Amino acid sequence: MSSRLVGVGVGPGDPELVTVKGVNALRAADVVVVPVMDTLERGRAEATVLHHVSGEKIVRVVFALNERTDHARREAAWDAAGARVAELLREHAYVAFATIGDPNVYSTFTYLAQTLKELLPELVVETVPGITAMQDLAARSGAVLTEGTEPLTLVPVTAGEAALKEALAGPGTVVAYKFGRRAAEVAEALREAGRLQDAVWGSALGLPEESVRPAAELDGAALPYLSTLIAPPRREGGRGGKL
Fold first, then answer.
1. How far apart, in whole angstroms, are the C-alpha atoms of residue 232 and residue 153?
2. What is the pLDDT of residue 2?
3. CA-based diameter of the chain, in Å?
């Protein structure tokens, strides 16, 4: 029988936000792979998974999660990670891969699945959706992501300042991911677009060190890398004004 690889979204960090289907998938797996930058660290995905399965089932695999400049090093790291997970799939019929957020939204799982399909052509790949950081931040801050006919734009700030400014010039809510190291630039872009007052940001959602604050309080200091920003549009016309 073909081995099965299932990418399981475990949410932003709050273990209560892992879906019932996600918990069942993790518990049914022979092993649960968690991505780390160093085998000695416990990443956010692993910390979440440990609330639902035994640590004996977890296997840490090193990924070049933050390598953006050295292409050769990144490719070598991906090849090594793919080979390690392929080895696990040859030993076990069912391997789960736990990823923060959702496995189909800016997730390491996407690249891993591509690599493994080349190594194991008969491999069955599935995903279990997870709660995203923007959903959790909206719930914790009271920000409304969309109303009526408004569009929703998700931008990784690692794509550059121009992409963020273009999104902020549009009509709907803008969500920015991975903006922590460029917080000062993001605050200035919000100010220029007239969106600073209603915007909110958050980091470490659902964890003891959680921070959820108005974007107007950004002072230019660097924030955690995985910080999330929600910048709603100006909404006028009362209830149903965007219908």
1. 10
2. 79
3. 60
pLDDT band at 235 (very low <50, low <70, confident <90, very high): confident
Q: CA torsion sign, 109 to 114 to 118 to 122?
A: positive
Which one, of 25, 26, 45, lies nearest residue 35 by Cα? 45
Separation CA 153–CA 83 (nearest Å): 35
Within 13 Å, how many C-alpha atoms sit on residue 83's CB side?
6
CB of 150 within 8 A of CB of 230? Answer: no
Range of lowest pLDDT (113-117, 120-124, 178-182, 194-198): 178-182
Query: What order do you get walking across the sheet with 228-231 strand by strand?
Result: 152-156, 173-177, 228-231, 200-203, 211-214
pLDDT digits (tens, 9 = 90+) for 109-131: 999 999 999 999 999 999 999 99
Nearest to 218 by CA among 177, 192, 185, 193: 185
- The answer to whether the beta carbons of residues 179 and 186 sit under 8 Å apart is yes
CB 53 within 8 A of CB 15: no
Q: What is the pTM of this model?
A: 0.90
E strand residue ranges, the chain: 4-9, 31-36, 58-62, 94-99, 124-128, 152-156, 173-177, 200-203, 211-214, 228-231
pLDDT at 107 over 80: yes
Q: Beta strand 94-99 with 4-9: parallel, antiparallel or unpaired?
A: parallel
